[in-house]
Amino acid sequence: MKNPDEREIIKTFQRRFGKPSFLGDDVEVLKIGSSRIIVKSDMLVASTDVLPGMKLSDIARKSLVACVSDLACKGVKPSFATIALAIPRGFTRKMVNQLAGGFALASKEFGLKIVGGDTNQGKELVIEVSMFGSNNKNMPTRGGAKTGDIIVTSGPFGYSSSGLKIILEKSKASTQFLKKCKKQVMRPAPRLQFGLQASKYFSSSMDSSDGLAITLNDMSEQSKSRFVIFGFPTGYDVIEFAARNKIDLKDLVFCGGEEYEMVFTVSPRHLDKVRNIARKLKVPLFVMGYVARGKDVVLMEKFKPKKIKRCGWVHLRS
Amino acid sequence: MKNPDEREIIKTFQRRFGKPSFLGDDVEVLKIGSSRIIVKSDMLVASTDVLPGMKLSDIARKSLVACVSDLACKGVKPSFATIALAIPRGFTRKMVNQLAGGFALASKEFGLKIVGGDTNQGKELVIEVSMFGSNNKNMPTRGGAKTGDIIVTSGPFGYSSSGLKIILEKSKASTQFLKKCKKQVMRPAPRLQFGLQASKYFSSSMDSSDGLAITLNDMSEQSKSRFVIFGFPTGYDVIEFAARNKIDLKDLVFCGGEEYEMVFTVSPRHLDKVRNIARKLKVPLFVMGYVARGKDVVLMEKFKPKKIKRCGWVHLRS
Predict the structure, then answer these.
(1) Which of A275, B9, B55, B140 makes an SS bond possible with B205, Cβ 3.0 to 4.6 Å?
(2) How far apart are the C-alpha atoms of B190 and B26, rounded to whole Å?
(3) What are the pLDDT digits (tens) for A84-137?
(4) ipTM of the modeled complex
(5) Which residues constitute the domain of residue B65?
(6) Nearest to A124 among B87, B91, B122 (CB)
(7) Cα B127 to Cα A100, B112, B118, distances in angstroms
(8) Model pTM?
(9) What CATH number has the domain bearing residue A297?
(10) Same domain flag for A126 and A230
(11) Among chain B residues, CA nearest to A114
């Protein structure tokens, strides 16, 4: 009997704790007194989440990005964060300063205040961020997609997975492409402003940081709809990189992760409004499909639907 | 040049992030819209916070206790918690169930709801808990002690440090005493009800989980007052254990940690009200000193004041 992976562990926990208000979505909603607080907790663990060569300031920033990205796709402005750290022995003063500097710069970048936390000693660097905001409007859930809605992503996919192939598996790439991929992995840019302005038009949304295939499958399942995909949301340089290294483009685009883009569905009648917001903010939208009756995520290849299964990173999968 | 320890790391962070609303206290206060939310974040790391032989269900419970205890001493009822986990490879289904079961039982014990979190893979078990409550009354800070106030603890000190001596250094003890000490270490009982009912009478308060000497020194510094100690808040069996093993009783009582008792100051005119609440809840108060003009924490030994310095556990101290 295999040990449980991340998905099974989460299910065990959900069985125990019953259905919270907003079960299985990107954020938690707390009703405290008359207030409605939106909370997101994310843990970054050095041995699984940090690439060789990544700067401590970028690691600190990325631990905030994960939460910002989740809040953004629900249209929630992050106001505060607490940070809990496990720090290994041998961490020098300079390293602490780099970490603190990264947090300080990122908190300015995203307009939030770091209000405290907890410092501990551990075997490896672990950064847990809890981020708080409020939202009195209706937030888009993962399960709100309606038949006829358009499926859109806030940016291209495939750069982070290409970056991993280059760094870890030595795939061949131009210096310029490597630079672009590295930036995606080391300094991802969550679409905060776009989420804040455009989320009111979304019928459903989800942060894609676990990979596009997992994201689409979660949304399709929770929306009880079929997601029909006809286009790959990616760049021409990713297509070129895949061809040159004989890598399946589908794997790069759908089975990556850490893109921190939002995937959302929108009624055709709102699409132009969303496009206008995106244009002003220079967010490169990709229209990738539509919502139909039925189930599963399917890719239309030569007019025959082919199922896109869950792929991508799952913690503790053996 | 030595690497920075926990205290220095915290100072570095505080320098960077400026003074939050409630700097250097047990909890953080967030003002979101018109609401005032009290947050406490605490991280438990297996390699530093878990004793050999401790059950996973007790580890789960203790990670919640740390936050409950901090909120309790400020009179804040915990309503919700999020949990972020790093889980090492080799964690079986049974172990996940024990962990989840511990969280479920403890959330019932403390009357709070676990609303979500984050699951990751790491080199060792790390549990981060963020806990939320609200409080519209004035909370006692660490810095509110006034000259003439009485210094009180909500229970005895010395059992957790005696327990560590027995388990890790094989000090001699009776089976009964060992059992009592183990219970203190494995299943500490935070004084939640007492804090909720009595904190309105406190002029200052602090959770003592870093050790009594650190707690008293922090309160004395932040209150800009002298804390004069004339009694040891401990049990006769701890005194006996110290004598039998030739351990300095002062070390056991003041330099331990993980007692999860609250230390508070109270004006003499409110002391009876606090005593009555304690009696009803079977909380064994210890009056240990008074607040005077001046600085430092001093123990009156043979009528001569002797400074009680910071001692106890500091993460990353070499």
Answers:
(1) B140
(2) 14
(3) 999 999 889 899 999 999 999 999 999 999 888 888 999 999 999 999 998 767
(4) 0.86
(5) 6-134
(6) B122
(7) 22, 17, 10
(8) 0.90
(9) 3.90.650.10
(10) no
(11) B17
